[in-house]
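Colleagues,

Please find the record for the two-part complex below.
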Amino acid sequence: MTTEPAALIHRFNAAQRLIHWAVGISFTVLFLTGLAFSYPSLFWLTNLLGGGPTARALHPWVGLVFSISMAATFSMWMREMSLDATDWHWLRAIRAYAQHQTADVPPAGKYNGGQKLFFWAQTVLGVVLLISGLALWFPNTVANVVPTASTLLASMRLVHYAATLAGGLLLTMHVYLGLFAFPGTARGMIDGKVTRAWATMHHSAWEPATDATRVPKDDDRR
Amino acid sequence: MSTLSIKRISATASPAPGIRSTPEYAKLVDISSCIGCKGCEVACKEWNDLKVEPTANFGSYQSHKDLSAHTWLLMRFDEVEMSGRVQWLIKKDACLHCEDPGCLSACPAPGAIVQYENGIVDINHEHCIGCQFCVTGCPFDIPRFDKETKKVYKCNMCVDRVEAGLEPACVKTCPTHAISWGSKEDMLSLAEHKVDLLKDRGFENPVTYNPAGVGGTHMMYVVPHGNHLADYRLPANPTASPLPLTGLGVLKRIGAYLLGVGVLSSLVHYLTIGPQAAEDLHPHDH
């Protein structure tokens, strides 16, 4: 059954996939150049963007691409990402999920509680990174407005780093789960499809997963 | 100046290469002997070939409103009231060349800011990435960013002259010997002497400005009214490591471990619990 084309379910439409990779690629570039600016031993990572001065000049512009992509992500997914009682149930069984004790994990809808929390955490971090990043991009403007600008700007460096660290840790988890821990997940972000078996295992309460006779339709592509 | 003389170097994990033992120099600015002729301002522009910037009268003897990437030395003229009398404060504003430079420790670009054995703090523009973190890190608000070159500039204590055994251009040109030049030790004792002279003349609070929060400076001042440092635009307690940046340093160490642990624990999960493909499960197992 799993080899039949009908066993595939549309999970993400083209717009969602494109915006996901815009976020993913821009964040990775920002994360790596950010590491370069934070750790002298990783300064060579600035070569990814053409060396120190060029990387410094491009980093905020890539940040702008990231922010816009994040805004698009937010508007596309926010309605589907509100947490309800089922999600908190699911989150309580997160250890069982990580240990593949599938029987102990409550059914999840199209997105599980972990994915929803990930979405909200990245949204908040995105806003924090944008605000602190803008301050560091235009320090002179900040200095013209705020009397104790150097303390504020130093604090913005701290905040920008802390948000990057949190985002980087979440990214590590996201990439590991999507690419390595659960084969078949990444395909949803490539051609937008997942197998019915995958959907049943991870999102058994998601409507296309529950209806075994249902053929994929266009409105699954939402 | 040669890398043999580099005592501190920005964003570099390995030790600085300096092995030369050269004397530590200092400039001493006796504010009470300054007549505000601005000769030092001109000498600085001339020696360093810095562009002359147009200015306008804004109600002060001061040449420009602020330091800039092309003006590394500015004589500031401030009229302030002290115990019922107007005082005309004239202060030479330029890099103080801190022993513990806040600009250098804030800099993320390897080798962009160096401190030489003789105490001079200099920017190596070929390594500067233009992030302006040094501007934020300086407790004296000295470095200035140039929008065209996208680099930061400040007084380099005429490092090329000093290397050749000469005094900085501002020292050379000062007609009243308000600026002295010599070993840090000699300048400290000269400062003490000048402070004593001011006390003899009836000044109540003359001080030597060589703030401990930045480990002392290689441009020191003799301040006639030491209880009015703010009026001279001199911070009373400047620090090279403000709280947010100290916090950032600690967090970076923790962050490095956390990121390592994050990647390693993913690997451990992969090797112990392992991946699970949906197709491996029996259809009715869940």
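The longest helix of chain B spans residues 243-272.

Comments are welcome before we finalize the supplementary table.
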